[in-house]
UniProtKB/TrEMBL annotation:
This is Hydrolase. GO terms for molecular function: hydrolase activity. It comes from Amycolatopsis balhimycina DSM 5908. Pfam families: Hydrolase. Keywords: Hydrolase.
């Protein structure tokens, strides 16, 4: 069956977001043990990923659980967003842009509340693709099969007609399990070559 849509992950695919050591830096400043920031806020990060808390509630949790003033909570949030957004993978973004209008294009991302607005401001993702499925907006995350089915439905394609490029193997495996052509992102040259192979008649 011919491919009609290509869908891209964001983190470490369309955005390159290395660990900037934000948690460790703030642990040192606040006199906390290594890993304590993540440990105290683990449930908040999980809740933000499926949109059951607001940004204000996240900020308040940072203040309460780390014992910091509002100004420090804002600074922590700003540092976390800087790390989250990383830098744009310009080559892959432009490749994705060039697939339209021959193919439907989309983004399917395990995200965090507030990501759409910041990523639009930084990278213009809403103008790049036909549809974006953010986990924090739809209340479920990869590798839940339902989120892949939702992306297919919104792009009006069957799973067998979609390519998904992702850097996390369990996410790719879950996509393949429902018939999507999953590609494991390693670098731009490899990813583009594998997408192009599937877009040719011999790749079907």
């Amino acid at each position: 069956m011919a491919i009609r849509a290509a869908v891209f992950d964001i983190g470490n695919v369309l955005e390159i977001a290395p660990d900037l050591g934000v948690g460790r830096r703030w642990e040192a400043r606040l006199g906390l043990a290594e890993g304590e920031v993540g440990g105290r806020l683990a449930d908040v990060w999980a809740a933000g990923a499926i949109g059951v808390v607001t940004e204000d509630e996240v900020r308040q949790a940072i203040s309460d659980r780390l014992g910091v003033a509002d100004e420090q909570a804002d600074a922590i949030m700003a540092d976390l967003w800087e790390q989250y957004l990383g830098t744009g993978n310009t080559e892959l973004i432009e490749y994705c842009r060039g697939l339209r209008p021959r193919y439907r294009t989309g983004i399917l991302s395990n995200s965090f509340v507030g990501a759409r607005e910041r990523e639009q401001a930084a990278y213009g993702f809403e103008d790049l693709v036909d549809d974006i499925v953010y986990s924090h907006e739809v209340g479920m995350s990869k590798p839940d099969p339902r989120i892949y089915e939702l992306s297919c439905a919104r792009l009006e394609v069957r799973p067998e007609e979609m390519i998904l490029l992702d850097d996390i193997e369990p996410n790719i495996a879950a996509a393949r399990a429902i018939g999507i052509r999953g590609i494991h992102y390693r670098d731009n040259a490899q990813a583009i070559a594998e997408i192009e192979e599937l877009l040719t008649p011999d790749g079907d």
